[in-house]
Structure formats: C-alpha cells, structure tokens
Amino acid sequence: IPEADIPRRSVGRYSGLLRKEVVNTEAGPVFVRMSDPGPDGTVVILHDVGSSSRRWTATATQLARDWGGQRRIVLLDLPGHGETCARHLPLFSAAAISILFEKVMQAVDSGPIELIAEGAACIIAAAIGNAHPDLVRRLVLVDPWLLEAAELETPAAGWLPDLAPRNYGPHLIEAWYFIRDGDLFWPWNSPLAAKA
User: Fold this and answer.
1) Which residues lie closer than 8 Å to 113 by C-beta, 6 or more apart?
2) Rounded Cα distance, 58 and 86, in Å
3) 27: how many CB neighbours lie within 10 A of its CB?
C-alpha cells in the first residue's frame, strides 16, 4: 500500500479539543490544558488534591464539543500535581495558589471565568473567588470539604502525619496508613470502630 502524502492544510485545526501548554509565571511554570477561546467566556476546572488536570480531560473535551467552541475550557495542574512543580511557591496555601492562578489567567488572556473545583480544590477555588471577585463570575463546588466548627480545630492537632523521609522507609508505611484510614474512618486520624 503506498503511503499517502496528505498536506497539513487538509488535516485542519482540531478546534474545540484541548491542547497542552506551559504558562510561565513569576512563581514558575504551570502546566495547562485548554481549548480555543470562545465568545461565551471561559470555564476553568480545578482537579482534586492528589490528582491532575488529566482527571478532567475526557469531561472537558466532551464539554468543548457540546458547546461547539463557544466557551474556552482551561484545566491546570495545581502546584505539586501533574506536570506543575511545587518548589516555586514559598508556601503551599490556598492564598498562594490564588495568586498563581491569577497570573495564569492573565497569561491565557481570560476575562471573567466560571470556576469549577472538586474536593479539596474547593478550598482553593473559594480563596480565588474571595481574592479575585472581578475574575470569578460563577463558582461551582463539587464534593467540597464541609467541616463543622469542632472539626476545624481537630485537624490542626494531628490531621497530617509527619511524612519526612527517614532511614529504612517508615514514612512510607505511615503514608500507606494515611491513605487506607482515610477511606475507613472520618476523620482519618481518629480510627474508632464507632466511626467505621
């Protein structure tokens, strides 16, 4: 079978599908997946902690097709997730990430946005909406962490284990228990049979 020599122009642009880019900011590079700009604005989706923008790629691609290119869809890897490095932030906090987020939105030339966040990223999305009300037109929170006042005090005392690397790897066992107990108990650091 002879190979076909198809000119590039006959293939056309894949409008509405996500392309990958790296947005350089003062705080370092941020990995972004986005569709072409559309006249109806921009929808930004933030993945949950421990995930990456790849988690939302299929959904975002389908939304881009359904909306017929009328809206730009932006997915970004949060610092320390996917292909975005964490070492450029002085502090890993919702406030610091909201500043980085604003820089990324300026770089992709986005006007007011609709922001969708999942899980722990809802805390980051709320901080972004609070810090930049002129940027966030609508906020959608999927499975947010809603804690009672008493539960807000408990995490400070023992929410996260000390996972600093130590000789012979005991920190890895602690990380495993952290992940396992997070699915068995709430809160994870209070494993009582009554809470299972």
Assistant:
1) 41, 42, 43, 44, 74, 105, 135, 136, 137
2) 25
3) 18
Q: Which residues are CB-contacts of 80 (< 8 A; sequence separation ≥ 6)? A: 86, 92
Contact at 8 Å (CB) between 37 and 108? no
Residue matched to tokens 């909406």: 129
Residues 47-58, buried b or exposed e (16+ Cβ, 10 A)? Answer: bbeebbbebbbe
Selection from 104, 111, 110, 113 nearest residue 138 by Cα:
113
Q: What is the pLDDT of residues 90-108, one digit of tens each?
A: 667 888 888 889 889 988 8
Residue found under tokens 């890895």: 172
Percent of the chain with pLDDT over 70: 72
